Structure prediction request, 189 residues.
Amino acid sequence: MLVMRGEKSLLVLGGARSGKSRFAQAWAQALPGDLVYIATAQALDPEMTQRIARHRDDRGPRWRTVEAPLDLPDAIVAESRADAVLLVDCLTLWTSNLLFADRDATAALGALAQAVADAAGPVIFVSNEVGLGIVPDNALTRRFRDMAGDINQGVARFADRVVFIAAGLPLTLKPPAQAMDLGDNVPIY
Prediction:
């Protein structure tokens, strides 16, 4: 794995069980500094409680965990140091949390972009690509899919590097193939 030390931010996208979290964790561990895992998950049921515990065990003792289910930009600001690597897992759950808390996703994304711009050290994001399947059959799920897509696009715009993971294999989307800036007024269908 080639780790670019001059890059400040990385977005790792992929489907469920694609290997995106494992890839992001390995990337973070290849960088110098303390490792800070910013968790957006909430243990709202026994299955999620077990999943969170399993992920925490998988990371091991090098990692310090900070929980930020809603106030992710504030957590990045509070935890960012030149000698720390922040791993945010995941933007998809953060999106869900914003949706159910009736928070303004556009404002939250703006705050996130500013937090990363001001960060003293590297920030790595993990997110599900939820737009590759069928169109959901209900309004709430379509709203979530659209919000997640908008947040992924926004983070991809400001991230230095974007990698898509499929079947555990990384495909670099940015760079070298930089995203074209088509402006803010281009409709997305």
